[in-house]
Amino acid sequence: QVQLVESGGGLVQAGGSLRLSCAVSGPTSTTYSMGWFRQAPGKEREFVAAINWNGEMTYYTDSVKGRFTISRDNAKNTVYLQMNSLKAEDTAVYYCAALSQWPTVPRDYWGQGTQVTVSS
User: Fold this and answer.
1) For 32-68, how does the pLDDT look when each residue is reduced to its tens digit (9 = 90+)?
2) In 3-state terms, what secondary structure has residue 106?
3) How many CB atoms lie within 10 A of CB 72?
4) Interval 3-12: pLDDT, tens
5) What pLDDT shows up at residue 102?
6) DSSP label at residue 64
7) Dihedral sign for Cα atoms in the order 62, 11, 109, 53
8) For residue 7, what are the CA distances in angstroms to 50, 57, 112, 116?
9) Are the beta carbons of 22 and 111 closer than 8 angstroms?
């Protein structure tokens, strides 16, 4: 079973940047496609970005294209989400997940998430 620990969230002004990290552990964890998801207050959890096992393929939801970049370092068993030009509507708890189906369907294993708050 995959274990996930997200970090790097915080409070930032609109237009600012944050980099989230997701430490992944478990058998064959480096072979999983991985994704970032987020859940804003009162809303359903939504897909944000995905990366395949070797980092050669990425996929983004339209609202973050050109602003967010997903990457991974398999030597460190870590997945990243670089978030630039942040907007108030990016405020949410961010989660990483292993994918069961490329590019947006997560396996049902979740970490604790990391809070991102963007002030306008």
Assistant:
1) 999 999 999 999 999 999 999 999 999 999 999 999 9
2) strand
3) 22
4) 999 999 999 9
5) 96
6) G
7) positive
8) 17, 23, 9, 10
9) yes
